[in-house]
Amino acid sequence: MKKKWYKGKVFVITGASGEIGSEVCRYFAPLGMRMYLLDLPNPALDELVEELKEIGAEHAEWMAMDVTNSEQVESVMKTIGEKEQYIDILHNNAGIGTECSITNGGTFEEYRKIMAVNIDGIWRVLQAALPFIGRPKPSKKYPERREGQLIFTSSSAGKVGIPHMAAYCASKHAIIGLADSLRLEYQMKNHKIHVITICPAPVKTKFWESTPKWREWLKKYESKGFPYVLLEPKDVAKAIYKASRGNKKEIFVPRWYRIITLSRRIAGSLLIKIEKSKLESFQNN
Question: Model's pTM, two decimal places?
Answer without folding.
Answer: 0.89
